[in-house]
Amino acid sequence: AVGDCSFSPCLHPEPSRDTMPGLPRFHLDTSAPHSRRPCHQWPGSWASLQKTVVILCLLLSSTSLSPTHAQTEIPPETVKLWADTFGRDLYDTVTKYSGSLLLQKKYKDVESSLRIKEVDGLELVRKFSEDMETMLRRKVEAVKNLVEAAEEADLNHEFNESLVFNYYNSVLINERDENGNYVELGAEFVLESNAHFSNLMVNTSISSVQLPTNVYNKDPDILNGVYMSEALNTVFVENFQRDPTLTWQYFGSSTGFFRIYPGIKWTPDENGVIAFDCRNRGWYIQAATSPKDIVIVVDTSGSMKGLRMTIAKHTISTILDTLGENDFVNIIAYSDYIHYIEPCFKGILVQADRDNREHFKQLVDELMVKGVGVVNQALTEAFQILKQFQEARQGSLCNQAIMLITDGAVEDYEPVFEKYNWPDRKVRVFTYLIGREVTFADRMKWIACNNKGYYTQISTLADAQENVMEYLHVLSRPMVINHDHDITWTEAYMDSKLFTSQAQSLMLLTTVAMPVFSKKNETRSHGILLGVVGSDVALRELMKLAPRYKYRDGKKLKPKPNYNSVDLSEVEWEDRAETLRTAMINGETGSLSMDVKVPLDKGKRVLFLTNDYFFTDISDTPFSLGVVLSRGHGEYILLGNTTVEEGLHDLLHPDLTLASDWIYCITDIDPDHRKLSQLEAIVRFLTGEDPDLECDEELVREVLLDAVVTAPMEAYWTAMTLNTSDESEQVVDMAFLGTRAGLLRSSLFVGSEKVSDKKFLTPEDEASIFTMDHFPLWYRQAAEHPAGSFVFNLQSAEAPESPGQPMVVTASTAVAVTVDKKTAITAAVGVQMRLEFLQRTFWAATRQCGTVEGPCPESCQDSSLDCFVIDNNGFILISERSQEMGRFLGEVDGALMTQLLSMGVFSQVTMYDYQAMCKPSNHHHSAARPLVSPISALLTATRWLVNELLLLLLEWSAWGSWRADSKAEAKAVFHQSHKHKKQDMLQPCDTQYPVFVHQTAIQETNGAIECGACQKIFVMQQIPSSNLLLLVTDPTCDCSIFPLILQEATEVKYNASVKCDRMRSQKLRRRPDSCHAFHPEENAQDCGGTSDLSASLPMLLLPLCAWVLPPQLLR
């Protein structure tokens, strides 16, 4: 029973989520279990459920019911004849044009001289790890050189308040004024395209300097810092010459400037703003401070209304931006009572990863003010959380701090510090006085100075960035005084901000960074952090040392801008117990096996594999490396004895290419080698023409063997072309083959202008070629099917710019070699043919009728029969209706697909995507509230207008309060703090989607589907030597009462309890090795002071606005 409605006994329970129900399912919304209503209150839903129940009952009894009227007979033996005839004709054609039997024979001929090598996974992963350790060590050495140079330069530099110095400003270089003269700080700067730096325009002889819009480019601190850091130019160049695999090197200054090598031109965003601030980047934050637990305590009492609340919200957002993956955080709001802004996080700290930071920002935006501020309860709660986490050995296990954000009206706080923090003062307290009122400044400073913190006053939005940064300098003091140059490696992250104007494709990176300190004796106790130096390592470069073609083509990470990194559990999601994840985080060496489901062809298909996982750590880094070998073609390598002369001769055929992404020889280090293709490099290596070339000798031997064995295919295909010169015989566009070693041959049977799919086997169609990440789709599918059996795949050659292009079919089969009872897949061979030929062959085959003399009693082209040819995933290759071809059968005939699923002919596999992106749901806490009355709606609109006006006044205030050169300052901050509201961005989410797979044990079946007044008769027959099925049905029976079955992804919605549990869960993670929380020589009295108190006219008008308008509008 559901609610108050009882169902007939005919109804069966819903099956598990991993298997497809044999019958249509029903669903009820169970999200509100306490609001069940009787059936008569759900007239529409109840009628629908009754209808579903009737369908279920009828379908269950469909095999025993007899037709209610005359039905078309579909003899199964006739359908089998059609399937066998079509299969034989198809097999003869594709073997003839592909030459698959010849290729199989050529490998068979040399079988006796071949050796199949089983890949040793542990040995492989250890070798990869050692190679990566060597590479990463070189990056560390480069960064150490920069640290030494920067600290030495600072030691020898004396601060000059009146320093005048021109430098290459990244935004202004090559800019001219209206008279054609270079603008100040914008001299001529030579830029050239460089392939090593993603073809960007750069200058590899010198660096350039970038500053965010809200940092004055001629401030004395900036000029002195830029002048001092000029010494890094020589080191940048020397590092790059010593290690040509280095990418970007840079110095991020604590004053806000960013020196980057090679020099590059920086372009503002569409608002004319440079928002990038190096001090907010993960590499800077992690290198500048040790991990930290932060509790932000914000005053939401009535005195914080209006502008103060706006500034407080922006301050919290700025603090959140300074937190990284190693930090933990929570936010408590207080007035006359305290509340966690995320109730789910009550009493805990959560990792400050990107998802949680963005979640907090959204909640902060919704904070409202009311009541009287009572701070002691909030401080008590904050101290208790920090104490509990420290005692439970949770959180960062290092620095702990409370950020108090208020307008200063605080009292009864001293007893809290006496109880929880004195005398040890293990928790630092940072205070932020909001607004221009200075009455409570002494109290706020006292709190900070007596708890080893720092006090600042934030009067405008523009104040927030620089004032918040002060806490990082305080937390870095112990490390600076100790001169501990910890090497920091960041998590993998998407670089989406560095060159936003360059239309760069997103790239996964890790950064190695080290802090730079002042070594001057007179500033030792102050612990002055000068900045952080770093260098990027693209994960793609790292993975070149562990290329996937060495073991298998695996799951690919999806680059996404909305979060920084991808957890292993989101990729290898079959590891439910997180055994693999735990072992790798703990830096263990070992192996395990798992049965996995791998999506193919954009999620339309799936491979069932058994994977062996091998893992180890990478010494002197926080990283672990895992390698996966798929049992079958992934774990064997074919080796043979081929002479260099013979191999070279066959390598140079014009129809032969090699996987351009694969590294047969290292060509990206020596500048003289960068212009070489991999094939040219192999030739030079084999001929001894270039003794300096380093090549993978085992892979080169594999290529030589494949080149020799596959060489006869060129002559075979040429003869086929000559023999089928007649236009009417041109049924195949091209033949192709690919080998385990990345060798690719192809031959056209028609003129290149007549090829149906011109993108096939080109970089434009990435799925059809060998890449760093995967083997071609046609190879992967063939390798998982029996050798000799062809896999057919329908692809549309139609592109948006060229509608009407024909659909094409690729057919491929694997070539296997067996030596000493080991079988290895060595190649895949196939053809691309036109769909029209397939259709002609099929219609001809279905005109066969066995022993019956004269015209056949029925044919697939009769109106009384409906025929489909579908593949093993249920996609239609042939139908009488062209609009159905390429679509999933369930979208066309829900009744037939439902019956095939219920009979076990097909099974449904539920796949999950934990890296998906979804449109955010339009969620409002009280969407109906403005509709209560016209007055309420008017007040809401007025409040919005007032808020916008106050922000505008605030912007003008920021402009008027400082030097004219900083005019864009508030504008930059305003754009940054409100940009996320204006952009309708996709958000990370979890999705699930069904994939349908034919169960090969069932090669033929037939039956009848009861559709109410009639029965739908059908016969299914496997088409031999292929992945195709023939379906013949009776179209006269209307079965539209069955719902269509769609293959589409749906977001996994979690109820509040599950969602909260997921958000609260603390996954096992590896913490940084070092912690610098306190130092006895630290000058704790360097704890802040007052801000500029000047006021401009708009600011003076604000109290008037607040007085005139009703209080509730300024919440």
TrEMBL record:
Gene3D superfamilies tied to this protein: von Willebrand factor, type A domain
Example of a GO cellular component annotation carried by this entry: voltage-gated calcium channel complex
Main location: membrane
VWFA domain mapped to chain residues: 293-475
Classification via InterPro entries: Ca_channel_alpha-2/delta (IPR051173), VDCC_a2/dsu (IPR013680), VWA_N (IPR013608), VWF_A (IPR002035), vWFA_dom_sf (IPR036465)
Any matching Pfam family: VWA
Claim: Lipoprotein is one of the keywords in the record: no
UniProt entry keywords in alphabetical sequence: Calcium, Calcium channel, Calcium transport, Disulfide bond, Glycoprotein, Ion channel, Ion transport, Membrane, Metal-binding, Signal, Transmembrane, Transmembrane helix, Transport, Voltage-gated channel
Family to which the UniProt record says this protein belongs: Belongs to the calcium channel subunit alpha-2/delta family.
Protein name in the entry: Calcium voltage-gated channel auxiliary subunit alpha2delta 4
Species of provenance: Panthera leo (Lion)
